């Protein structure tokens, strides 16, 4: 599943340590259950590699949000067909 990589996280520099470390959901601070893949951000002027994680609720909400933006800006997504990113976001945001 590649969709979690497509979800933008809050700015690393603004996050408390337990959200930065992946212990807690990067968006709401509850217990994290899903990996969002590694990111590289600038924190205090230095490059930091971090691995944000998320709770299932925020993961679904953010996937929906990004999917709805994606289908309006993606040239490959039309009413008949969707690109791989579009499909992955849809599966994540609208689980069956
Ligand atoms: Zn959350
Ligand atoms: Zn697309």
Provide structural commentary.
By secondary structure, the protein is α+β, with helices and mostly antiparallel strands. The protein has one domain (about 5-95). The protein contains 3 helices and 4 strands, in the order αββββαα. The protein has helices spanning about 15-20, 55-75, 85-95; strands spanning about 35, 40-45, 45-50, 55. The strands form 2 sheets. It has a two-stranded antiparallel ribbon. The chain has a two-stranded antiparallel ribbon with strand order 2-3. Helix 2 (about 55-75) packs antiparallel against helix 3. The longest helix is centred in the last third of the chain and has 18 residues, at about 55-75. The chain is globular. The structure holds zinc ion (2 copies). One zinc ion (ZN) binds near residues 70 and 82.
From the structure above, extract its key features.
single chain, 96 residues, alpha+beta, two-stranded antiparallel ribbon, 3 helices, 4 strands, 33% helix, globular, binds zinc ion
Secondary structure blueprint with pairings:
Elements: H1 17-20, E1 34-35, E2 39-43, E3 46-50, E4 53-54, H2 56-73, H3 84-93
Antiparallel strand pairs: 1-4, 2-3
Molecular shape = globular
Largest sheet, order of strands side by side?
1-4
Number of domains: 1
**What's the average pLDDT?**
94
Order of helices and strands: HEEEEHH
Radius of gyration: 14 Å
Number of helices: 3
Bound molecules: zinc ion
Largest sheet: 2 strands, antiparallel
Q: What is the total tally of β strands?
A: 4
How far from one another are the termini?
16 Å
Fraction of residues in helix: 25-40%
Instruction: Give me the secondary-structure category.
Output: alpha+beta
Indicate the low-confidence ranges by residue numbers.
Answer: none
Share in β-strands = 5-15%
